[in-house]
Write a sequence for this structure.
């Protein structure tokens, strides 16, 4: 550092630095002198490129710095920041040599606000779901009364599944529990939950429980993803969401047909209590017995009534017949020839029994029989 | 085995029919027998102890 610079000697092909040399050197100096650090500022001029890389400036009242956040760093964030947002970035100061620009290579980005980017992403996705009518209360479906198959999407080894299994086993073992394990946390959770939902979509399932225990908003993120929310909304069967705790409502909760505070509560909402159903069956059995007794009594009464009518009918006919008989016999009696003979008349008949009524039938010497009231005698014409 | 809900709905329909209509004895008996059988199956379903749990392995579907 001691010797004076020979300006003229440096201003030559051999002495001068190339632009590339300067930027490379500057970059080395910057990177050696400034370790990665947290920087606070306001986002401005944000632009997300097709490649997935984000470019923006951080500024405050005094200055601004160009920033880049590469796709491999930003893919874990729920949403890009927006201009004007106050953020913290953890970044490596560097030099973008091609443009000779001082820049921060951002490795982490946090909003300074409570909930930060997560909240922003949540609100954005929620607005999109509302716009498509997916949060409309009229879309909410009723739970089946007596579910045959209950599907559960959750982590296969967690307490969630154990709780649900215990409640369903106690209340409604009539059902079959179909467990579709999914990764509910971490980078692959969104895809894993979506693929589990996809599998269930094709199964004959009456009701679906999507569940996981509570966690930080980051832990619950898969259930705040618009993709998962849309997949839940598109399920052909009613969905109960038991994600997180009372305090943190997820998009999955909002879009589901029913939100349960805990996985156990979800299992209760999905099932009837078999004790109550058994009691109902007992009542039905009693009604069945009573109804049969009444039906039988009706039949007996009808038979009795019919018998009575038959009897009455027979009596009536007999009376009539008896009266007729008396009348007829009186008339018969009146007309009887025996009665006439009784009054002194006689009937003459030939040997064939033919009645002889005229003189011509009775020539002299004709023999015939004469019927009188108490018998017959032979007679002849003189 | 029919679904429990179908079983119960049919049973309820039988009880209502038996209660409401003036049936001849043959028909009433037939309904009663069917009702008793359905009641038996329904109770059996309700009192079975074991919950069946099936795990469907996740297949990465694109």
């Amino acid at each position: 550092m001691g010797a004076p610079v020979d300006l003229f000697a440096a201003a030559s092909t051999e002495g001068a630095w190339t632009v590339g040399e300067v930027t490379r050197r500057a970059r080395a100096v910057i990177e050696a002198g400034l370790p990665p650090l947290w920087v606070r500022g306001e986002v401005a001029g944000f632009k997300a490129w097709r490649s997935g890389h984000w470019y923006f400036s951080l500024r405050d009242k005094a200055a601004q710095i160009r920033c880049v956040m590469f796709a491999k760093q930003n893919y874990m964030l729920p949403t890009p920041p927006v201009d004007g947002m106050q953020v913290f970035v953890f970044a490596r100061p560097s030099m973008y040599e091609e443009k000779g620009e001082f820049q921060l290579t951002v490795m982490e980005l946090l909003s300074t606000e409570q909930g930060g980017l997560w909240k922003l992403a949540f609100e954005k996705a929620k607005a999109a779901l509302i716009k498509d009518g997916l949060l409309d209360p009229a879309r909410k479906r009723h739970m089946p009364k007596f579910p045959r198959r209950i599907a559960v999407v959750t982590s296969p080894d967690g307490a969630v599944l154990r709780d649900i299994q215990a409640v369903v086993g106690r209340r409604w073992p009539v059902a079959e529990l179909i467990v579709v394990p999914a990764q509910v946390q971490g980078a692959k959770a969104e895809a894993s939950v979506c693929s589990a939902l996809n599998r269930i979509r094709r199964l004959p399932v009456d009701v679906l429980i999507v569940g996981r225990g509570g966690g930080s908003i980051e832990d619950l993120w898969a259930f705040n993803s618009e993709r998962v929310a849309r997949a839940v909304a598109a399920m052909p069967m009613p969905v109960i969401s038991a994600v997180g705790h009372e305090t943190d409502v997820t998009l999955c909760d909002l879009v589901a047909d029913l939100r349960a505070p805990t996985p156990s509560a979800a299992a209760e909402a999905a099932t009837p209590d078999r004790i109550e159903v058994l009691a109902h069956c007992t009542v039905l059995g009693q009604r069945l017995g009573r109804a049969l007794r009444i039906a039988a009594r009706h039949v007996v009464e009808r038979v009795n009534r019919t018998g009575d009518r038959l009897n009455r009918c027979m009596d009536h006919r007999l009376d009539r017949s008896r009266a007729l008989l008396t009348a007829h016999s009186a008339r018969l009696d009146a007309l009887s020839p025996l009665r006439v003979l009784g009054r002194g008349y006689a009937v003459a008949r030939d040997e064939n029994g033919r009645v002889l009524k005229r003189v011509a039938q009775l020539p002299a010497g004709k023999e015939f029989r004469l019927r009188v009231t108490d018998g017959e005698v032979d007679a002849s014409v003189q | 085995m029919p679904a429990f809900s179908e079983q119960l709905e049919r049973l309820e329909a039988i009880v209502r029919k038996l209660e409401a209509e003036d049936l001849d004895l043959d028909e009433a008996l037939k309904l009663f027998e069917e009702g008793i059988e359905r009641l038996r199956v329904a109770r059996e379903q309700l009192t079975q102890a074991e919950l069946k749990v099936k795990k469907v392995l996740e297949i990465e579907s694109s």
Notes: The longest strand of chain A covers residues 37-48. Chain A touches chain B through 41 residues (CB under 8 Å).
